[in-house]
């Protein structure tokens, strides 16, 4: 490869670009690298002490997030897990149950913090394609009887990660919020990829999240920032969230360096998510034609592709190993299921390479 870079930063960018061209990383949209614009913004960020509320870049990011979601306030947190768990802590009291879908991130991938931090237990409910409906949830709300754990919160996930990036229809989400509120229950949205949901629905995030009491969303997935998530809600809610963020060690001082990249992610990156969705659809349609693989490509709505490899006579660990040997990275989510996630660092050519390698492996 002929290198034309003339500065150290340009050389680093060229080397990273070359490295990315050799490996197709479909493990997750968390693997994205910050853009050159993000790196410049981080280097030039105006900072202060955020624990004192004096970091101007953090303050701008939080204000802008609140505006975009039509909320009174927002708070920057290091991770989506922290944002979700702070929300659960505020909405509940120890000894209560949290209604969620049985494959929810808050249940399976947040280290039992629901119990450890908030003293609550999950009451999982199966939803078709990960999508719960009010008819699924209403019978699970506990009666007001002193000898049973009371329901304290309803938590939804949009898009639903382990159901394959599925999207809540607007009417379904609104009905759940209305029913829960009538029952005296708050509703939290794990919106780690809510901008993907908004892109799929063709609606602003403020519209599709308007009836939730709190929303967490990630900057570090499809939006491409290196670190961080935000939690949005009422001013009173966010004031409480600030206390719990500190208790979890989330007061990050001069964090404007991170917020600078987050601002670019928030303002500019949602507009390109449709490209990831198109690549995921392309990938799914190609997978459907690979011997031994089963997938309903018509159900792929966003950037997550989950497919059954039971017919390949390999388990997911073996297939992942063989893919990795050919510079294609993907994760198994069970012995017979694999997940691939498209993002800004994988283009159409990368998806074509992944399919070519899969066809080669499965022909053996």
What does this structure look like?
The chain is an alpha/beta fold and 364 residues long. The protein has 2 domains: 108 residues, Aspartate Aminotransferase, domain 1 (Alpha-Beta Complex), CATH 3.90.1150; 232 residues, Aspartate Aminotransferase, domain 2 (3-Layer(aba) Sandwich). Helix content is 42%, strand content 15%. It contains 15 helices and 12 strands. The strands form 3 sheets. Strands 2-8-7-6-5-3-4 form a 7-stranded mixed sheet, sandwiched between helices. Strands 9-12-11 form a 3-stranded antiparallel sheet, with helices on one face. Strand 11 and strand 12 form a beta hairpin. The longest helix is centred in the last third of the chain and has 16 residues.
CATH architecture of the largest domain: 3-Layer(aba) Sandwich
The named CATH superfamily of the largest domain: Type I PLP-dependent aspartate aminotransferase-like (Major domain)
Q: Taking Cα atoms only, what radius of gyration do you get, to the nearest Å?
A: 21 Å
Ranges with pLDDT <50 over ≥5 residues? none
The main sheet comes to:
7 strands, mixed
**Shape, per Cα inertia axes:** globular
Determine the structural class based on helices, strands and strand pairing: alpha/beta
Share in helix = 40-55%
User: What is the spatial order of strands in the main beta sheet?
Assistant: 2-8-7-6-5-3-4
């Amino acid at each position: 490869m002929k290198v034309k870079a003339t500065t150290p930063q340009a050389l680093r960018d060229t080397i990273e670009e070359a490295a990315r061209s050799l490996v197709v990383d479909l493990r997750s949209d968390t693997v994205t690298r910050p853009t050159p614009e993000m790196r410049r913004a981080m280097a030039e960020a105006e900072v202060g002490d955020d624990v004192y509320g004096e970091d101007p870049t953090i303050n701008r990011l939080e204000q802008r997030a609140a505006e975009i979601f039509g909320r009174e306030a927002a708070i920057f947190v290091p991770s989506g897990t922290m944002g979700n768990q702070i929300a659960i802590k505020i909405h509940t009291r120890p000894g209560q149950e949290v209604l969620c879908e049985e494959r929810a991130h808050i249940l399976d991938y947040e280290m039992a913090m629901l119990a450890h931090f908030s003293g609550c237990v999950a009451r999982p409910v199966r939803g078709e394609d990960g999508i719960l409906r009010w008819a699924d949830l209403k019978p699970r709300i506990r009666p007001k009887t002193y000898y049973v754990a009371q329901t304290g919160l309803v938590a939804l996930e949009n898009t639903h990660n382990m159901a394959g990036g599925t999207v809540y229809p607007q009417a379904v989400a609104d009905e759940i919020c209305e029913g829960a509120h009538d029952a005296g229950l708050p509703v939290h949205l794990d919106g780690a990829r809510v901008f993907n949901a908004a892109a799929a629905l063709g609606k602003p995030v403020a519209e599709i999240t308007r009836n939730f009491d709190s929303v967490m969303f990630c900057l570090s997935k499809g939006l491409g920032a290196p670190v961080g998530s935000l939690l949005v809600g009422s001013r009173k809610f966010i004031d409480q969230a600030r206390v719990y963020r500190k208790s979890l060690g989330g007061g990050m001082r001069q964090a404007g360096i991170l917020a600078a990249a987050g601002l670019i992610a928030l303002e500019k990156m949602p507009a390109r998510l449709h490209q990831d969705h198109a690549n995921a659809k392309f990938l799914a349609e190609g997978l459907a034609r690979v011997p031994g693989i089963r997938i309903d490509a018509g159900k792929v709505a966003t950037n997550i592709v989950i497919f059954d490899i039971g017919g390949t006579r390999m388990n997911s660990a073996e297939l992942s190993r063989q893919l990795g040997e050919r510079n294609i990275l993907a994760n198994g989510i069970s012995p017979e299921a694999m997940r691939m996630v498209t993002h800004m660092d994988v283009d159409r050519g990368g998806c074509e390479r992944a399919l070519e390698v899969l066809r080669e492996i499965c022909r053996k």
